[in-house]
Amino acid sequence: MATITVSYDGVDLILSDNGHTNASRSEQINWHPGSGVKTVTNVTAKSSSPVSTENFWSNAPRENGVNFRGTINGTIEGAWDYDISCNVGTNNNPVIKTKDPRIQVLS
Question: Residue 18, by phi and psi: left (phi above 0), alpha (psi -120 to 50) or beta?
Fold first, then answer.
């Protein structure tokens, strides 16, 4: 299981893996809020992603409390480019920031 911590430095979202995750087939990926991030609000494929969400994930990323979690397909090869959105404000005054990282499945 890979856990990607998403923090906020006052300007940009910072991912603990620098925005490039190397993962295995069937691996579960967890996105977890770090310093300055209230919640992870969305994880969605970029339209330019080499592999579609339907093909890349056996369980597509979805909300799990303040985290997001998904499980990679056991037969997939390639990469998934995505946008991650996080609330860096408060529940009453949300401020949404977005970053565009990549997950690469190692064969």
Answer: left
Do residues 66 and 94 lie in contact, with contact meaning Cβ atoms separated by under 8 Å? no
Q: How many CA atoms lie within 13 A of 104 on its CB side?
A: 8
3-state SS of 15-79?
Answer: ECCCCEEEECCCCEEEEEECCCCCEEEEEEECCCCCCCHHHHEEEEEEEECCEEEEEECCCCCEE
Q: Is the pTM of this model over 0.90?
A: yes
Angstrom distance (rounded) from CA 90 to CA 78: 36
The CATH class that applies to domain 2-105 reads mainly beta
State the DSSP code for 1: -
Number of C-beta neighbours around residue 106 at 10 A: 9
Residue type, 22: N
Tell me the average confidence (pLDDT) per consecutive run of 10 residues in the chain, 107 residues long.
96 97 97 97 94 95 94 95 96 95 91
Strand partners, 31: 4, 68
